[in-house]
Amino acid sequence: MTTVTETVPAASAPEPSKLEKFDIRADKARVTLGSRVASVIAIIIAVLWTIPTLGLLVTSFRPEADIKDSGWWTWFTNFNSTLSNYAEALTGSRYELSTYFVNSIVITLPAVIIPITLALLAAYAFAWIDFKGRNILFVAVFALQVVPIQVTLIPLLTKYVDWGIAGSFWTVWLSHSIFALPLAIFLLHNFMKEIPRELVEAARVDGAGHVKVFFQVLMPLLVPAIASFAIFQFLWVWNDLLVALTFAGGDQNVAPLTVRVAELAGTRGQAWYLLSAGAFISMIVPVIVFLSLQRFFVRGLLAGSVKG
Amino acid sequence: MDWLTQADTTSEKFILMIVAIALFVLVMGVILFIVDKIPRAPKWVLVLGFMGPALLGLAFGLVYPALNTVKSSFYDDGGKNFVGMDNYVTAFTENSFQQVLLNTIVWTLFVPILSTAVGLVYAVLVDRTRVEKFAKTLMFMPMAISMVGASIIWKFMYEYRAVIEGLAPDRQPAQIGLLNQVLIWLGFEPQQFLLTGPWNNLFLMIVMVWIQSGFAMTILSAAIKAIPDDTMEAARLDGAGGMRLFFSITMPSVRPALVVVLTTIAMSTLKVFDIVRTMTGGNFGTGVIANEFYTQSFKQANYGLGSALAVILFVFVVPLIIYNVFQMRKSEEMR
Questions:
Q1: With the C-alpha atoms ordered A250, A251, A253, A255, is the resulting torsion angle positive or negative?
Q2: What interface predicted TM-score (ipTM) does this complex get?
């Protein structure tokens, strides 16, 4: 309305300018309105994505009796907290998640280090050693990403039983390492190809062998790429259920947290004081790794490292 | 040699872990040392030294088992008698398995579409705002946690307390699941979200959407940032509003990324196992192929049928991957 009253005295002004002015104002109003609606939608989505986790987190700090009697949202008015759920879940004789926590660490470290090393070496050969059949072999390795791990489980388990290593850490390490290889080789090969050819060739001319070139020229340059993939593999192994369930089974001395927590969800499905604490015990390490190394994670994601 | 396979205490486990890593480093070191020291080593020795271990692993852990599984899908459970297509016929004709196949197809359509839509809308809305980084972290945090963890988080959202007949509403046991409490606040009856079919499938899929949206958002956000400012500015000057901009500029520009995101999520959805197993165990009509495969193979010891289900999964994944690769090629060419 103000637009109209303001422009009335200036009747001599050319017509289009008035219209233009009005247009711009209207446009601005539309943009602010749009952005207000946009903000509301964005906030609603953000809340929807956060509330479920928040609910379980709050629950994990409430006394068992409170959890049964009232919803977690009443905690904000009736502030009553305890750490006993975590104590019970970690060290209570029947649940002892601390044992499984150790298992998770013991499973994860070799299952990250081994495949990355193997993949780096193979990727180097694919990228920088010229040999007959290289392209066909590379396509074959790449194509192996198609194989869903489900297809491999029964024969692998049979083999492990034959060798007498079934139910040991070795089976889990070996399986995770192999399953990671096709994607790892493909990605690291792509990163290696980006390194300028002159750099590698100069070192070769200076008389450095392939082993030396690999360790002294390429490795230092590949640290960010290795970090990206390491985070992926770490999250994948730590959070995996299927591989661990198949090869480690319910063995208390091998099975990782995910297996135990999933089992609790089945057998003690109503024991929320236990499940909530257990779930967060299993989540804390990947969340910390993820938050502190988010930068590398996003880079890896954009490079196409999505495990199927 | 018992200590190599049996580790019962924490220290034994860590020692075993260090031994394993050391052993690995040693073997690789020896291989590389030999390769390095052979004067004028023939090329095949070099290649074998670098990629031999990886190729051996792939042959043993992927190629051989995959072929073996394809073979056992044509045999009975003992693996002795050839049964032709029997296992596949069972998988495609029996009612319970048809339900499983149908569920899998619905999952593979619904989850990618919804996660991509949410991820795209959110990416557009938070783009270039002051809180962009924080807002994005909120959405892709679920990607860092395990599907088991996510399942427990949502199981608690869906938690149901039985309504006792003939008791006044205010004397009923408190609902501790947020969704049922919301239903009560709105004046509805609480629901058994995970037990009542076919809707329970939807509630399981929502968990996957919750996990995958962050992935879609990250990729699409990068694609949105790649749209040149000039294009956006020109459209804005031409009077295009938010909606117009979204449908005429943003959508067409991120189309290749959109396709990659959709197919990638579809592939992970096809193989979803953890969510179904943790939340319903595949009961109440919620089974999907990946879960049914596990049940048949390792619970029921139906190796033939289990293998057939794994092969079916394989066959479903292949066209998606091929399409995905072609799209990636295309979007790379466009850059």
A1: negative
A2: 0.87
